[in-house]
Amino acid sequence: MTNSTSSKFDDHDVNDDELLAACDDVPLKKPDPIVPIVEVASFEFPFEPYQIQTDFMRGLYSTIQQRKHGIFESPTGTGKSLSLICGSLRWLFDEIQSWKDEYEELLKPIETKNETSSGDWLKRLMKRKEEETAREKRREELKVKIDLEDQYANAAKNTLTANIKKTKRDFDAKYRHLFNSELPSKSDGDDPSLSKDQFKIDNDDELSDEELIIKDNDCKILFDDMDSPTKTDSTGLREKKVHVQKIFFCTRTHSQISQFIGEIQKTKYVDQLRLVALGSRQNLCINESVLKLKSLTLINEKCLDLQKQKKEKKTTKGKRQKTACGCLFLQHDRVECLSNDILKGSSDVQDIEDVVKLGRELNTCPYYATRAAIAAAHLVVLPYQTLMHKSTREACGIEMRDNVVIIDEAHNLPDAICAMHSSEINGNQLIDSYGQLSRYHEKYKARLTAKNLLAIKQLLDVQINLIKTLCSQENLPAVYDTEKWSNLVVSSNKTETSSTFDLIDYLSDAGVYVNLFQLIDYIKTNEIIKKLHGFMSKYPVNKNQQSEEKKTNESALQKLLQKQTQKQSQSNVVDEEQLSKESTEKRISNSFAIFATFLEALTNPRDDGKIILIIKETLGQCSIKYFALKTSSFFHEMVNEARSVIVAGGTMRPINEFIDHLFLACGQPEEKLFQLSCNHIVPTDNVLAIALPLGPQNIEFEFTAVNRSNTAMMDELGRVLVSLCSTIPDGLVVFFCSYDHLQKTYAYFEKTFVLNKIVSKKKIFMEPKRSSDVDTILTNYTKSIKNGAGGILFSIVGGKMSEGINFSDELARCVCVVGMPYPNIGSAEMIEKMRYLDSMRLKSTTAGETAGRAYYENTCWKAINQSIGRAIRHRGDYACLLLIDKRYSKANIPSKLPHWLANSFHQMNNFTETSNAIQQFFVRRSNKPTSS
Ligand code: SF4
């Protein structure tokens, strides 16, 4: 066990020359900087490509062709997405064409050579026979692939999109005629628009006790099996389909998926491409009764549950007929038809929103239509989570064998993979989930079978044992009481402390000896999450409910009087009730599902992660975290199965981290790796990057954790910012290392009237705490700049404005980073990560370098590079980048910056020099015409 007393990931920094020196980016042992020549007539790039774009596409094409893996870096604004699309799709369609060419070739008879000697005719005959057999075999293989391509291409043409424009009546009639499949209709088929009432499903809170009680072998089908399109069920949706050669493209967010699809629409490939974008049921479900459950787990469970129900409905002739599925949006013919629409390949390539819209028009499930489309699709676009998580991947029927995987925005991929596989549960969630299960047990114990009672008892034991690892056993009140347990004081220390454990040691110390795999299987098989949710909705425990119970005992007269008084204050009551209901619902929905997810994380292999106990003042505030450490464990299968895995991003430095953690650690040989780092298309003189070690009064900047409250330094920073507001035109974005640092500095500037000076030059904006406010702030910031009032936007490195936001042109003529955003070296996670990396034998580390220290350093630089990458978004863009801290003046700093920036980087000795350089930069720019 290890202990640490520092807070979680608060930004910290280290003033350590040795550390910086030790962590220089180390080149790959056998660099392969030469972009291979590939025989491609045209990549069909929609514009005349720049040389770096051609290099990128050639590099990508040959990497896939040679079945290698690749790491591609190309700065934002250099057309990276289009280069990825054109390079990979050119390869895909060339590959398909090569099958046809080879097949044609193999149909020709073998040329006979003019053999004169007759001695070894038997040998020649045997050889020829062998050759013919091999040709025959290859011909058959190719025929299967070609036929499959043709079959799916023809199916994709067989769409009914045109009919959507007609009335629903005509459309439905056409469907009936084509498929002889009856559509659900409002009343005896008179009204073709579907009645919403027909699609109403039972709410969980309407479930009877009988439905809530777990039976033996209540449900034999597990989530994943139910969801898998490779199984066959009564709907026929899960018939095994053969997959064509394909490319999986994944990126981080749904908005990035939309942008990517927008780029595809600019290319000629769109006409022949079969594309599908995947999303979760939360994004794609159109059954309002299911969607209202809000939590993804419950939506998934409800949908799967519906598929097990066979519903009876009246036909037009008054007879009762069983439908294929409890959800009437899920009918095989219609789903297949919608999947053809999705795949049809034209300028109508479907984004997730388009698919949902189409699904609603057709009253057909978009979620299953997209899954039905995977097998035939050339290109599957999907979010990170779906591809990286094995069970999700399998549930979607994604087959990676021999296919190409492209992961864009991969700059944080190793950490993102670990974060996806980590899991945390806090004291309140544990207490809640224990309370729910205890109440369920208490209510139904007389009606549950011995087997179910045993399983529930085991789950309760695990829950209570985990709770007891957060507090001392003697202090925990013997009788369950949510409030008392949650508020139990477990530490007199106001700051949190953490302890780290080996997974098996932790479980053993906690007294958890049961088979966790079986318990997880039990939870899934018997739908415990759904049953508990239904139970808690039917029998809620909250103050409102208690008062309701009291009310029912009051006399009718009292009720009448009460109603009259209530009327007057109804609006307030509704609001309060609504808020209370929402928070109770959230609590009910989530706690057991979170417990189940956490339990699953505990089944990971011992060496893949650690357990971290985070102790705070009360039991409810404490938490238990499973911290996944070993990226390769979760990436191994993908990299070994796929034909090529391509990771790409705007700033991929240090590339060695990807090589070590993603590829070499997964057993891939160095010879199988290709890396390409492209320059920017922006001319060097469009960027001015400066390290600023001191301000106008020569006060040095060193924003270490202990220094940040230094008032002399804050005053000096204020002077710099006021000066910049006079020099920099339009927008200025200033990144601080943490919210705390920004808030303190802002408050100080307010007190010392620095803000007054700033506001006289530029309007002030602050990064909001809530994500939902980001759009409003950005819109107002943009408006202010467009109106000529300018703007200064205070933001956080690694915050909401530092990724995925495009501050092009006048939105950011200058980006400043104040201080260095080192992660908290004392946090339990960082200690464990560094220790784990130190224990690995990384090939790229050099003498004197420790992998853990390099990781620590790189985490800081990745965050800086992401922030400064917000500016300079296209060839004609220009901006000044200011790194404010004396630690940026070290000699090795250029090696930490993106390649393209290193040549524009200057270390200045004083503020006057800096200020003059900035002024001259903008004077030069104002004399140049801007091109985009
Ligand atoms: S089948 Fe489709 S529409 Fe119906 S509940 Fe499931 S996801 Fe929603």
UniProtKB/TrEMBL annotation:
<dbReference type="GO" id="GO:0016818">
    <property type="term" value="F:hydrolase activity, acting on acid anhydrides, in phosphorus-containing anhydrides"/>
</dbReference>
<dbReference type="GO" id="GO:0006139">
    <property type="term" value="P:nucleobase-containing compound metabolic process"/>
</dbReference>
<dbReference type="InterPro" id="IPR045028">
    <property type="entry name" value="DinG/Rad3-like"/>
</dbReference>
<dbReference type="InterPro" id="IPR027417">
    <property type="entry name" value="P-loop_NTPase"/>
</dbReference>
<dbReference type="GO" id="GO:0034085">
    <property type="term" value="P:establishment of sister chromatid cohesion"/>
</dbReference>
<dbReference type="InterPro" id="IPR006554">
    <property type="entry name" value="Helicase-like_DEXD_c2"/>
</dbReference>
<keyword id="KW-0539">Nucleus</keyword>
<keyword id="KW-0347">Helicase</keyword>
<keyword id="KW-0067">ATP-binding</keyword>
<keyword id="KW-0408">Iron</keyword>
<keyword id="KW-0547">Nucleotide-binding</keyword>
<comment type="similarity">
    <text>Belongs to the DEAD box helicase family. DEAH subfamily. DDX11/CHL1 sub-subfamily.</text>
</comment>
<dbReference type="InterPro" id="IPR006555">
    <property type="entry name" value="ATP-dep_Helicase_C"/>
</dbReference>
<keyword id="KW-0413">Isomerase</keyword>
<dbReference type="GO" id="GO:0046872">
    <property type="term" value="F:metal ion binding"/>
</dbReference>
<dbReference type="GO" id="GO:0051536">
    <property type="term" value="F:iron-sulfur cluster binding"/>
</dbReference>
<dbReference type="InterPro" id="IPR014013">
    <property type="entry name" value="Helic_SF1/SF2_ATP-bd_DinG/Rad3"/>
</dbReference>
<keyword id="KW-0411">Iron-sulfur</keyword>
<keyword id="KW-0378">Hydrolase</keyword>
<keyword id="KW-0479">Metal-binding</keyword>
<protein>
    <recommendedName>
        <fullName>DNA 5'-3' helicase</fullName>
        <ecNumber>5.6.2.3</ecNumber>
    </recommendedName>
</protein>
<dbReference type="GO" id="GO:0005524">
    <property type="term" value="F:ATP binding"/>
</dbReference>
<dbReference type="InterPro" id="IPR010614">
    <property type="entry name" value="RAD3-like_helicase_DEAD"/>
</dbReference>
<dbReference type="GO" id="GO:0003677">
    <property type="term" value="F:DNA binding"/>
</dbReference>
<dbReference type="Pfam" id="PF13307">
    <property type="entry name" value="Helicase_C_2"/>
</dbReference>
<dbReference type="GO" id="GO:0005634">
    <property type="term" value="C:nucleus"/>
</dbReference>
<feature type="domain" description="Helicase ATP-binding">
    <location>
        <begin position="39"/>
        <end position="460"/>
    </location>
</feature>
<dbReference type="GO" id="GO:0043139">
    <property type="term" value="F:5'-3' DNA helicase activity"/>
</dbReference>
<dbReference type="Pfam" id="PF06733">
    <property type="entry name" value="DEAD_2"/>
</dbReference>
<dbReference type="InterPro" id="IPR013020">
    <property type="entry name" value="Rad3/Chl1-like"/>
</dbReference>
